[in-house]
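Problem 12. The chain below contains 133 residues. Write out its predicted structure in token notation.
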Amino acid sequence: MNGWLLVAGVLSLVTTGIHLFAGGPEVHVPLLASSPPPLLQTYVSLLWHATSAILLINSLALLFAAANGRYRVSLAGAVIAQYLAYAALFISYGLAYLGSLWTTPQWLAFAAMAALAAIGARPGRRPPSTTAA
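Solution.
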């Protein structure tokens, strides 16, 4: 079991829960309550739930990578790329449109999960060879 990836996976699950149970009432519900046109309402909900699905799938991928060394680098690499992209989006939109990194602090969680996963995905050292030369 790879502890770094395990921690990244658990943090990703926690982030998924926060997205669903705190972000829903704070962001998704008010967006829908603003009575956007039906097409926009559909897209808001689709994107919200797609994000939920991606967060859950990434969490499971990290947990699987923690337990299975065979796919560790590829699974972790895919999640790292996504989470770094999310962090960059939160940073750039926060700065460009809100003038602050702290209005959208989600970048911290995504950067932390990517960093933990990157540490866990590093190829480990092989034990010294026991064959005589």
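Discussion. Residues 3-33 form the longest helix (31 residues). Students who got a different answer should revisit the alignment rule from Section 12.3.
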